[in-house]
Amino acid sequence: MPQNVRVTEFTDTSIKYEWDTANDALEYLAYLDSASVPFSVYEAGFLFEGLEQMTSHVAQFSVFDGYTEGAKSAQIIQKTRVIKPIIDTYYYGSTYLTGTGTAGENITNCRIYKHGESVAFATGTMTGEVLKVYLTGNVNIVPNELYEVCVIDGKSGTPIIEGMRTTFKVEIPQISLNPVTTSQKLISGVTAKNIQVRISQNGTAKTIIWSDAETGVYSWSASPVVVGDVFKVETKVGNEYSTNQSTVARDPVGTLAPKSYTLGSNYVTGTFTGDVSTVALEVNSVLGTKVKVIDTSNFQYYSKDKVIAKTDQVYIIGYDPTNKQLDRKGVVIL
Question: In the chain, how many domains are there?
Answer without folding.
Answer: 4
